Amino acid sequence: MRILFATGNLNKIHEAKAILEPLGHTVEGLIIDGNRPEFIEPKELGLEHVAESKIEQALALIVGTEFEGSSILVEDSGIFIDDFDEWPGANSSDIEDELGLDGILKLMVNSELRGAEYRAVAILSNGNDEWKSIGICRGELAMKIRGTNGFGYDPIFIPKSGDGRTYAEMKKGEKDMTSHRAKAMMRLVESLRAPSK
Ligand code: ITT
User: Which of 43, 77, 179 maximizes ligand 1 atoms within 8 Å of its Cβ, making it the mutation to test the pocket?
Assistant: First the structure.
């Protein structure tokens, strides 16, 4: 299937390609009139509502364009820190911009719990049928920034399924075997074979 990923985040597109192309799908970023979509996000309502709002906005954007009827993918994701009552969640990108990863680690100096998880909600729609999936990746926060690969919180996120390296310390492709995004995307394409919800 040709999947058009409506996102302004190129890292998400690179990861979705690495996850879905070996399964026989193609993934391209949705570009309309030279622009990637910029969504209004009702972040206070949480990831699932934000993802639902993104798919509505994306489908509205393609009305009357060559993309009408195509399979459109959106995704909303974030990191949830156990000791901070699931903060920053849907506000992850804003908090990263405001505090930086160092600022987040500083807030945790007195935290005994370092557990955290990445979550992603993905929705695929062709305008008639819609499929939704959730992916979660458990892990913990590192004591300091480590590694330069990946994006966002990857330099401080150590996945539980790994060997102690942060995602940013892993080689290209390693994150895509276990990440929240990988789980959500793989579940999504598995559910394509079942009737839509
Ligand atoms: P779109 O809404 O256009 O898709 P975005 O980057 O704004 O792009 P989100 O609203 O879903 O996407 O915010 C995701 C943020 O959560 C991201 O900017 C990071 O701060 C964090 N995040 C999510 N997945 C991540 C990952 O795999 N690695 C590191 N940080 C991640």
Answer: 77
